[in-house]
Amino acid sequence: MTAFRTSMYIGEHLVGLEEVLDQVISADLEWHLTFFWGTPAVGADVSVDSLEEAASAAPHGLILSEEELRLLATKLYQVIDCVILGFPKDQPVHLRDSATMSVVAFDSSEWGVYAGLRERYRIRTESLLSEI
Questions:
Q1: Within a 10 A sphere around the Cβ of 10, how many other Cβ atoms?
Q2: Could you read off the pLDDT of 52-111 as tens digits, one per residue?
Q3: Residues 129/111, Cβ–Cβ less than 8 Å
Q4: DSSP β-ladder status, 2-7 and 130-131
Q5: Is the separation of the CB atoms in 33 and 61 below 8 Å?
Q6: Hey, what's the torsion of the CAs at 56, 59, 62, 64, to 10 degrees?
Q7: Among residues 86, 75, 76, 82, which one has the least CA distance to residue 25?
Q8: Which of 12, 57, 61, 132 matches a 20 to 30 Å C-alpha distance to 47?
Q9: Which DSSP helix (H) or strand (E) runs through 88?
């Protein structure tokens, strides 16, 4: 397992999900939002309450394509806590037991991105993420 992290705040700048997703190469993945707690961007047409419920209620989490996840990220101001798991698109949902990549937000303080050793190439080397 390869792990990367960054503070959710760099100086006074809030690092959002959109910026974190820009650091990973994941066009061939489908994402499962399994836990979410956050706040919407001003004027965004997203209900975070509904998002939180949908992520928790679905047996495999809320399943999103790469494009859907990136669009959602533009509608969020801050992610407080979340777990997002990436799986190969071509793998049947019922066979998904080990994520290729994980994106995790911890208590409004830190982002973590985790990938298997063979998946390390998915993290951009000029990334704002630091390997731990």
A1: 11
A2: 999 999 999 999 999 999 999 999 999 999 999 999 998 888 888 889 999 999 999 999
A3: yes
A4: antiparallel
A5: yes
A6: 160
A7: 86
A8: 12
A9: strand 76-88
